[in-house]
Amino acid sequence: MKDITAILADYSDPAAIRKALVSLEKIKFRLHSIIVLHAQDMSLNRRQENSSFKHIQWIPLKDNDLGKTLNDIMHTIGSSYVLFLHGTDYLSPSIQADSLHLSQSEPFLNTVDRNRNITVHRPLLVSAAFLKKQRFLSTFQLPFKEALFPAWLSNHMNSKTLNRNDLVVQSRRNRSANTIEKQKFMQKYQLTKIQTTHPSLSIFISNYNMEKYVETAVASCLLQNEQPEQVLIIDDGSTDNSYHQLQSWNDRKPVSLFSKKNEGKAIALNQLLAHVTSDFILELDADDWLDPDAVSVIKKYLADLTKDVSVLYGNLRKWKQLEGDVLFKGITKGSMIHGRADLLSYPFPLGPRIYRTLSLKKVGGFPVIPLNDGRLYEDVSVLNQLIRSNRFQYHDFTVYNVREHKESITKTNRPDWNEFLKSLK
User: Fold this and answer.
1) What is the per-residue DSSP string for 386-419?
2) Residues forming beta bridges with residue 319, ordered by sequence position
3) Which CATH number goes with the domain that contains 74?
4) Cα diameter, the chain
5) 52 with 138, same domain?
6) Any domain includes 195
7) Are residues 125 and 58 located together in one domain of the fold?
8) How far is CA 8 from the centre of its chain?
9) Is the pTM of this model over 0.90?
10) Ramachandran sector of residue 143 (left: φ over 0; alpha: ψ -120 to 50; beta: rest)
11) Per residue in 44-86, pLDDT tens?
12) Is the domain of 276 the same as that of 136?
């Protein structure tokens, strides 16, 4: 009964691949085929596999995108099931072939990865028919490549999900601060799906030439354990491929996509403001992303917000963009702002910024200041207006991820800050 195709993905060490292949000997009589997906620049010495399997498909990742490659090869799968091994996984020496079993009501079996007190679920055995219908996101639509399998699973987990933590072993466990922070983030994909009605929350995204990152921002809005009422996106006359990318999300609830000629972020956000139907608005930069529990956490704080508060904000989790990955830099904690002087001396951008919709509309939206034709500091400009007659409220929560990269418009225009402050006076 050869009913399983084994797929080995995201292995960076040939020795780990060999260990995984050897472990598959335990279920050899059920193996229909083996596929090893590897980075195009990875050096593999196949003569040292120490495996009795003669027919192994070695497939380079298409555009170094694991999600896209999996979707492309799924139609070639001829077995009933797919077994996923990932990173440094190998099958437990105590595994029995009949341990890999799915009931008629469950299309997949999960494995549980534990690191310290963090648990991350990933699919282990999945019905091939189910996989062909439920596609993976592109790796580049996620904040980091390790999130691919947990993110896919987040849309399919329920109370009947089968979990086994005794079937897979990892040859080594990474406990770096970067890995731990990524795993804390991925653990949130497993949160129970909920939906409350009040207060309602929309998300704003203004995009200009962020084709490398904007889909991660959009995907993070939809991979929430509580969906926002609206995800309003506007493309501000991009000259790269980002508007084309955004069009593929326009038919998904609750996304609405708009476009305009390039006039700056303030004008773009004001155009979105006309379409808001929610009580509050969360502003998400096109190169940042949200934790999977951002909406539910924010709504809990909004429920207790007094009417004289126009802006809720918290902490920022910061990441440095590397080549093909992000590096955790730390969490920047916010502090209470009691007036205009506190706002203008705040040591970093206030965020995440959650605006009361009525307050924002009352001050006329985002000011279009003369400096750089209104293309900079729209956030401080509107906060400067709101603080005159409203309070701001800080709470100690962290659900917003800031990506530091060389294309950031704020980085390229830092010398204009002093000129901006003079314009406010």
Assistant:
1) HTTTSEEEE-----EEEEE-TT-HHHHTGGGHHH
2) 328, 403
3) 3.90.550.10
4) 78
5) yes
6) no
7) yes
8) 23
9) yes
10) alpha
11) 555 444 556 777 999 999 999 999 999 999 999 999 999 999 9
12) no
